[in-house]
Amino acid sequence: HVQLLESGGGSVQAGGSLRLSCVASGYTYSRYSMAWFRQAPGKEREGVATIDSEGSTSYADSVKGRFTISKDSAKNTVYLQMDSLKPEDTGIYFCAADQFPGSRRLWLGHADYWGQGTQVTVSS
């Protein structure tokens, strides 16, 4: 049974920081590319950051320089460190996993597995 479990969401003021975690279980974690997506109220889900099985990372332009994706393979966990948060970062953040090499499919919105999401609220 494959499961992605996110945690770390919450409410912060603009300029603050949060670190999201996603623990994976039920599959060969190290072979998968991982990503964080978010969905703001009334908007479509969008990709935020990806990290592939080799550790290469990529980011949406809106979060470059502020967010950092990383992983700890020993803990089957991927993280999203979010600094200098802005009100427009508000939304539900989802963890995703894809067995296809690289991050291309993830940036197209495709993933084999999705987490349930964790709420992030940034107030001005």
Quick structural summary:
With about 120 residues, the protein is mostly beta strands. Helix content is about 5%, strand content about 50%. The model has no long low-confidence stretch (mean pLDDT about 95).
Task: Provide an overview of this structure.
Helices cover 3% and strands 49% of the residues. The protein is mainly beta and 124 residues long. The strands form two sheets. Strands 2, 4, 5, 6, 9, 10 and 11 form a seven-stranded mixed sheet that branches. Strands 1-3-8-7 form a four-stranded antiparallel sheet, with no helix packed on it. β4 and β5 form a beta hairpin. It is globular and about 40 Å long. The mean pLDDT is 95.
List the helices and strands and how they pair.
Blueprint: E1 3-7, E2 10-13, E3 18-25, E4 33-39, E5 46-51, E6 57-59, E7 67-72, E8 77-82, E9 91-98, H1 104-107, E10 113-114, E11 118-123
Parallel strand pairs: 2-11
Antiparallel strand pairs: 1-3, 3-8, 4-5, 4-9, 5-6, 7-8, 9-10, 9-11
